[in-house]
Amino acid sequence: MLWLENFVVAFGALRANKMRAVLTTLGIVIGVAAVIAVVSIVQGLQFLVVGQLQDVGATYLRVLPRIAFVAPGQVSRPVLLTNEDVEAIARQVPDIDAISPLVFGNETLKYKELQYRPTFVAGTDESWQEVVNQYVARGRFFSTVDVQRRRKVAVVGQTVVEELELGDDPVGKEIYIGSVPVTVIGVMEETGQTLGQDGDDMVIVPFQTSLTLFGRRAADQVQVHVRVSDTGAIEGVRDRIRRLLRQRHELGDEDADDFQIQTQDDILDLFTSILGGVTAVVAGVVSVALVVGGIGIMNIMLVSVTERTREIGLRKAVGARKQDIMMQFLIEAIALSFVGGALGVALGFGLGAAVTALVPIDLPPAHVPFWAVALAFGFSAVVGVFFGIYPAGKAAALDPIEALRYE
After folding, report:
1. How far is CA 143 from CA 154, 185, 233, in A?
2. At residue 78, does pLDDT exceed 70?
3. Residues 6+ apart with CB under 8 A from 213
4. Residue 154, pLDDT above cutoff 90
């Protein structure tokens, strides 16, 4: 019952000075709101990335050329991945279900009077659909014959269809990639936008055709995309590809790999690491606001002790013990922190939702996990206890006679 009485007295004191209580807890409100808003946005991003990686599948990996950084005055070795590397991997590495080269271009599309430059212009082969787990929604994809005979055909995304106004049935229409006419044979299924990247803003052509479109060096600047037979084989495939490419690139024991192999786990770990770093930096900044909020609570509690000195003396005169007085003021400090924490959680929810709704890029919905709310309230309580102990101890140490004489 004593705890309940102390809570009633504490909240009564807060109601008596509402504006002062709100201003006192402003630092806590800002700190907790920032934590909740950042966590909600980060969690939403993480859910989005994990979902998209799961769509591609855990048996997917890719091999990219590694950019070589050398000391000033030294000549860097050109980093090349070629279609011959792709063919060697396909021949010599077991447990691969599908493998495709990918080479990028930077070309403008034309259809009648319209021109458009998509973000993804690439050349690949007939296995691409199976490798990336994305298929055509209309028409057909490349065949082996299309690739081998360098046929001038293309598969486009829905954004390209709309930008070039290809209509409801784009299959069979002739567009220009640069100055080369190609026939649209298919439209890929829609994937939507991710973090501002439009997955439908694409045009892909047969690999051999792309070498003509993109120039001779395109054949040396290939990415390798692989679909492994099952998740248990992916590490073995990764090791075999690494040994094979080191051998083909004539790398010595002391030489670092001039390529990098990324699995879905690598990409997820990298993304999680970046988000973790961002969260840690924000948490460091936010902790300053929480400390400032705690100092504000301590300051206002010291003022409260001074204002209520006679009340403290009276309570001691009728039998209140030191621990009773200390508990009363400590509960008031914790109550202030809790009110600030509650306001901060509500404000953080609103900020997270507002940011995801208002920013120009397509962010996923904000998500606030329970642990973030518990952490915010827990940290608020710790701040209340830490910064409330000194004023509570000062109130408890007052001499009752001197307190009753205080004017």
Report:
1. 11, 11, 28
2. no
3. 105, 107, 123, 177, 178, 180, 205
4. yes
Question: Which position has the higher pLDDT, 252 or 16?
Answer: 252
Residue 338: both structure tokens together:
């809790």
Residue 88, beta-bridge partner list: none
Any residues with CB less than 8 A from the CB of 320 and at least 6 apart, and which?
Answer: none
| 3-class DSSP state of 104 | strand
Kindly report the length of the chain: 407
- Residue 380 vs residue 94, higher pLDDT: 94
Instruction: Please name the amino acid found at residue 66.
Output: R
Cα separation of 147 and 153, whole Å? 9
Residue 42 confidence (pLDDT): 77
Chain Cα centroid distance, residue 264: 15
User: Could you identify the residue written with the tokens 């606001």?
Assistant: 289
Look at residue 121 in the predicted model and tell me its pLDDT: 92
Query: What number is the average pLDDT over the span 70-99?
Result: 80
Per-residue confidence (pLDDT) for residue 224, from 0 to 100: 93
Burial class of 54 by CB neighbour count within 10 A (0 to 12, 13 to 18, 19+): exposed
Tokens of 232: 């248990």
| The pTM of the whole model exceeds 0.85 | no
For residue 68, pLDDT beyond 70: no
pLDDT digits (tens, 9 = 90+) for 236-273: 999 999 999 999 988 888 888 888 898 877 877 777 77
310, 406 contact by CB (below 8 A): yes
132/353 Cα distance (integer angstroms): 32
122 pairs with which residues across the strands?
Answer: 104, 204
What three-state secondary structure class fits 175?
A: strand
Number of C-beta neighbours around residue 355 at 10 A: 16
Rounded to the nearest 10 degrees, how much is the dihedral formed by the CA atoms of 78, 81, 82, 88?
130
Handedness of CA 36, 198, 86, 67 (dihedral sign): negative
